[in-house]
Amino acid sequence: MPLSSPKSAAETIFQALDSLEIIDPHTHIQPLQAASRHLNDLLGYHYFTELAHSAGVPKMEIEGEHLSADDRVRRLVNGLGPLENTIQLQWLHEIAQDLFGFDEPTLTPANCDKLLELTSQTMAAPDWADQVLKRCRVSAVMLTNDFDDPLEGFDTKRYLPCLRTDDLVFHLHRSTVRARLERCTKQSISSISGLQAAIEELFKFFVARGARACAISLPTDFQPQPISTTTAKLAWEKVVKADGDGVDAAALKTIGQFVFWTLAERCQQYKLPFDLMIGVYRKVYPQGVYQGQDLYDSRVSLYDYRALFNSFPDVYFPVSVLASVTNQELVSYAWIFPNVLPFGHWWYSNTPSIIRRDLSHRLEAVPGTKLLGYYSDAYKLEFILPKFRMYKRVLAKALAEDFVADRGWSEQKAIDLGTKVLKTNSERTF
User: Which region among 57-61, 65-69, 159-163, 241-245 has the lowest average model confidence (pLDDT)?
Assistant: First the structure.
């Protein structure tokens, strides 16, 4: 029998995990302005704006251009009351209390100006971003870089470049996107060979500047498959000729598949992981606030990716899914495919109860060396603290209950597994 209760074991495991220095393997941090400069930068996070709008705050009260940063904060705070039960509001409270010394139990219209003053003073420090990273015990964060990002002006060993490729796969029918690609690669892409050469130049550029991965967000109906150069050539001619949204849908789909497969080939060539975030459906609620319009669609299957996983056995595919119904399938694919790695708990799956369920499936069925436990998906560094802390609590509880209590593992053995999930695996993969 174990010598400690699951509760005390969870506390011991959490403390050990919380002391680790880690990397955050997926964020939307802008390295030239990584930390917040105003409380509005925190409250403007889409979790708060979409929840406040869902609870009745009018869109114009959130996004109105006439609002100053202070006024926008005050109006959002007026709408936070119905969010008191949510884990997202707990993130905000932990940031306020732990990073800014806010000593109120909750943020209200009555004490909003107090937090405005505290944050204004603290964020003004020239080394605020470094302070936040130190408090979070994070040594580096993975970025999400547009393909034409110059990757200049920041430390690429602390802010790790990642080539985000959504525009290349889904938006090359837009002349503005093609112009950006030609400008940054100095390649004409009027021909399919020119397009291939431009993608090659992108990879050379990113790898030379320390890129650690390629990444893409994929809709439910996307099906990766190889496309011949001859077929792609004909489709590309139609796309370039149409030059806009009136492009032939079949040609656009063909080019997307061709480019995606080319990206996978370059990942194989340059030994980069290819992060796949699968299952998002855009503009489900077009009247929603910015970034509060997209949802998941359960009509997705990793079976559509079988050709990809089989064709590139040497490429690691960290895979994120949006729904628990897909998590079981992800676990099964990671069970047998050496190159499929369960990756984080994405977006609508990023709440403790769903993490607990999905994490338990992964811990009991996937080799411990393959689990890429968590990423913050943060737009500002401050959110790394509460989001990772939430995950560490869930991970510690799962290890204490399912391994220490149920299987008789020692606490140290459980901590060792947690360290792989939280730290070692991400460091090795990226």
Answer: 241-245
- CA dihedral for 166, 332, 398, 357, sign (positive or negative): positive
Query: Strand 162-164 and strand 213-218: pairing?
Result: parallel
**How many CB atoms are located within 10 Å of the residue 405 CB?**
19
More confident residue, 111 or 246: 111
**Can you give the pLDDT at residue 4?**
65
Please give the angle made by the CA atoms of 23, 219 and 391, to the nearest 5 degrees: 30
- Tell me the CATH number of domain 35-142, given options 1.10.2020.10, 1.10.10.10, 3.10.50.30, 3.40.50.1000: 1.10.2020.10
Residue found under tokens 């969010």:
83
Please check whether residue 162 is in contact with residue 213, taking contact to mean a CB–CB distance below 8 angstroms: yes
Nearest to 272 by CA among 208, 190, 326, 355: 208
Closest CA to 251 of 232, 276, 228, 225: 232
142 with 430: CB under 8 angstroms? Answer: yes
In this prediction, residue 351 carries a pLDDT of: 97
Contact 288, 50 (CB under 8 A): yes
Q: At what angle do helices 69-78 and 112-123 cross, to 10 degrees?
A: 140
pTM metric for this prediction: 0.96
**Which residues, other chains included, contact 384 with Cβ-Cβ below 8 Å and sequence gap of 6+?**
24, 27, 132, 133, 136, 138, 141, 376, 378
Tokens representing 148 are 């034409």
Q: Output the pLDDT for position 2.
A: 47
Length of the chain: 430
- Per-residue DSSP letters for 326-374? HHHHHHHHHHH-TTEEEB---GGG-SHHHHHHHHHHHHHHS-GGG-B--
**Three-point CA angle 221, 223, 226, nearest 5°:** 155
Q: Where are the domains of the chain?
A: 35-142
DSSP letter for each residue of 292-319 = -S-EE-S---GGGGHHHHHH-TTS-EEE
